[in-house]
Every structure is written in C-alpha cells, then in structure tokens.
Amino acid sequence: MNDDLLGIKGKKSPRFIYYLGDRPKLVLQSVVKNVYKRYAHMFIGIEGGKWLDEMENITARYLYGHEEYEITDSSFDGIIRLIYTRSDKLDAMLIKVELPDSIKNKLVIVTAGENGAASSQPTGGNTAGLEFTIADTAACNVKIYNNIFRISGTDDISICGTASIPMDYSVKDASLYGKSVDDLLGSNGGTYPIIAGRTVGNTDNEIYFLLTTEHSDNKYIEEFRTNAEEIFDSGINYYKSVSEAVKMNTPDPSLNACMISQMVASDASWDWPSITHGPMGWHVAFGGWRSHYGFVDAGWGDRIKINAKQFMETQNDNGRIWVYPYADDRYNMNIVLVDGLLHYWEWSGDNIFFAEEGGYDFVAGHLRFMDSSMQVPGTNLYENWLDAWNTDNKWNNGGAGSIATAYTWRAYSTMARLAAGLGKIEDSVKYQRKADMIKADMNEQLWDADIGVFGEYRERFGYGRLNTAPDLSSVYTPIDMGLTTSEQACQMLYYTDYAIPSIENQDGIWEGIDFKYSSNRLPEYYSSDGLYIQL
C-alpha cells in the first residue's frame, strides 16, 4: 500500500488516522503516545462485479488534503469517481461516490471493525500493520438502526456509519471477503461479522457516505443524512485552505505540490495541545522537532504557544525541559523547541507571550540548564546530546559540538534582543556578552580553516582533536542559526559537494538531482550515516 495522509483534525485522544493508497481501500487507525491500534477497514464493490480496488484501470490523485479516484473496468460502462476527505465538523471520513447510470443501484460498501487490534506505524514503507485481519472482527458487535450502523467491542471506541440515501444494511461473514462481492453478499453474519450496505433502488448518481468514531448521537451524523453535500464540501474547503496556508509558485509543479502536501502534514502534526514529532509515524508529543518552523510560516502561532505551555508546566527548577509533556527522557531536542519559540517571536513580535505568559522565563531557564549541565568546562561551548534529527547514534562523549553550540548561541543572541525590547537592559547586556563569547570560542576551537568547516566536535579528553568530518546536520545548523559568515557558509556547502557521497536521481522526479548521505562515515549505519530522502 502506498499510503497517503488525509488531514487529521480534532481535540481529543486518541488521535485517529485514516489511510488510503493507490487503490480505494480505507484503514482507520488510532495512536496514543506512540501506541497504534486498528479499528476499521472499508471496502467498496459492485454487486455482480468486482471490488473497486481490483478494477482494471484506477487513477489516484492526492489533491489539497483529499484523495480522488477515477475507475473504469470492462465489467461496466462509464466511470466511477470517488473522493475521500476528512470532515472539519467532526472526527469522520467523508466519501463522495459518482456512479454511472448502469450501476447506481449496485454499489456495495463494506465496513469491518477490528476492535483496537494491535497495529504499528507505517514507517519505512512497511504497511504490514495496516492489513485487514479477518480474525480481528470476531470481538466486534454490530447494530443497524435508522440507516445507521454501529460497530463496537470490548474496547471503548465504536465506529458509526451512515449515508445520504437509504441503504440496505445487513450483517455478513467477513471470512468470505477474500472471495467475490457476491460471495460475501450471499453469506450470513456469524463469528466474523462485517457490515455490508447496498444501494438497492437508488436513483441518484451522487451518493455520500460517512464513517466516524463519534457517538451516533452527534448532531452532524443526523444532519449528514439530509445535508451531506454541504458537510462534505466544508471538509474539502477546509483542507484546501490548510494546504494553501503557505503557497509556493515555481516553474516546477512537482515542487509546488510538495509544499501543498507538506502543509497538510504540518497540520496533521498538530494534536491538541501538542505539536507532535510526525503526522503519522512517531505521532507523539515529543518536544523539539523542526515542525515548529512550519507552524510559524503558516501563521499558527496559537498552536505554538499552547504547545510550549505544556512544557512550561513541567520545567525543572534547574531549567531542564522535559522530552515529553508528561515525562522526561534522555533526549535534549528541546534546544530546538526553544529555537522554534524564539523564531516565532522574531516573526510575530509577540512580546505579551514572553513578558506576561511565561515565555521569557521559560527560555531563560533553558539557558541556565545548558550552562550548568551541557557547557564544556573551560569553554563557552556545549556538548551535542541527542539534539538533532539524526543523533540517535552520534555521540560526542563530552566534547564541545557545533550543533548544541550554534543553537545556544542563537538563543543567547535572540534573548539579548528580546530582553532589550522588554526593557530588561541588564539582561540584554548579559545575554549579548555571552553570545559574543560563544561565537568567539566556536570560531577559535571548532572552525577548521584548512578544510573550511566547523568540526562535528572537539575531543574533551586525550588528544583534544577536532572531528573534521561533520555530517549534514552539523553543516546546516550553524548556517541556519546565522552563526556563519557568508564565506564560511559557502565553504561548508562546498565541503558537502566533494566530501559527502551522493546517489543520483534517487527521487525519480527531478532529473539531475542528487541525494546526499548524511555523512561520509563508515560503516553505513542508522542516523550516523544513511540516505534520508524527505520531500
């Protein structure tokens, strides 16, 4: 399955994710603190014909946060069009089906519950955790009433569905799903119940369906049966507006499309009250990943502040910021959380948040922690400690590193300006003095003028040697933080051209584009040396 993300919206836990791929088979999964469960599958077919995902010609398009399919097959005349979108009114997937006249009364829509079956995140192209398992339907109870079906089990989550037209709903035997549509329709429910809905007697070419985790008394479920088109269009329009929160207009349509998809993914990384590590995989409130910057660009400042306030509540007396809002761990990625927050201030000028809502003290506390726990003795430099996206297997063993130092320099430099703007002149002078000392030490101790790079780190013990083979995150971070001169930035980027190997045309989209390994260190190993293509 080639998974596409349909935007995630809501203020609830667990968070529900709907997956679709190149073929119209829908999977509903939940995630809570990186624990994944499956709750439903939905399949569509034609009575007397095939399942739609088995049709001869299927064109799939992902546009502005919704998925579209055009389907043709020798078994019927005309074109079937499907559009799937998340609702902005309730936690639900909405489906619009356009049918040719010959089969508008033969559509079959099948929904299977899985009662929170153990699942996994589909990272690295592995979608095995999303596959339908017939045995998982055994724990489900089904109920049909007033053109609504409900699937429940021992778990607290129930699945409800309805349609814009009267449907012939009945319970069938899920063990026959792997055979033909008619084989399934000819069965009776038993150990493995599954809901089959038929459009018998339908005269409409356009039909709307709803699948939701909300309780069946939700007002929008009832409204959907009489006002489906408006509710559907509202979801389409909402996710189009999300997709265009940041616009890119270049001569390359593929690059433009990347930005549209990226904005939907950024929105999906918002799981109130947290900005999560990822929209699908690693969907956990892990502070400090770089998604904060996209939220600034999109104008989602309220989300940035809501997220930060969680970490303010648990910040230790020594200024240490917890890894998660609810627990601490070994990472120090919150140097990026602080940088994202200061980036927000630079673009918004939101002095109220920092002066009156705790933002200033939060950052000041973080800097106290960096000085007391991460500053290398005898220097104004700082140890890298699990503080960038690829640092799981990258260690400095107490030595002064360029990543932590660059982030801390920018925090001190920005706080100097912020303090001045708030009238805290003494603080401003203190912060600027510290920023100047950090920059001087970094240039003196970490810059290799012969190669033209800031080294990865300098050994704290033994010979005190400088590691002059920085990886990509150690190259771009000092540049990104504004710590380098233009000449230094040019030299560092040139270093990546000749020193770090590439693979040509790995993306399959842009001709002549090379993708870099994360470093030139051998052997190739996760995070310290790998090929990470992210579009």
Task: Walk me through the structure.
The protein has 535 residues and is an alpha+beta fold. Helix content is 32%, strand content 23%. The chain has twelve helices and 24 strands. It has an eight-stranded antiparallel beta sheet, with helices on one face. Strands 1-2-3-4-9-14-13 form a seven-stranded antiparallel beta sheet. It has a three-stranded antiparallel beta sheet with strand order 18-19-22. Helix 8 packs antiparallel against helix 9 and helix 11 (472-480) packs antiparallel against helix 12. The longest helix is centred in the middle third of the chain and has 25 residues, at 219-243. It is elongated. The chain starts with a strand and ends in a 19-residue tail after the last strand.
Shape: elongated
* Strand order in the largest sheet: 5-6-7-8-15-12-11-10
Determine the mean pLDDT: 92
What helical percentage do the residues reach?
25-40%
Q: How much of the residues is beta strand, in percent?
A: 15-25%
Helix-strand category: alpha+beta
Tally of alpha and pi helices: 12
Give the uncertain stretches in residue-range form. Answer: 1-12
Gyration radius, rounded: 27 Å
Main beta sheet: strand number and arrangement? 8 strands, antiparallel
Number of strands: 24
N-to-C terminal Cα separation, in Å? Answer: 19 Å
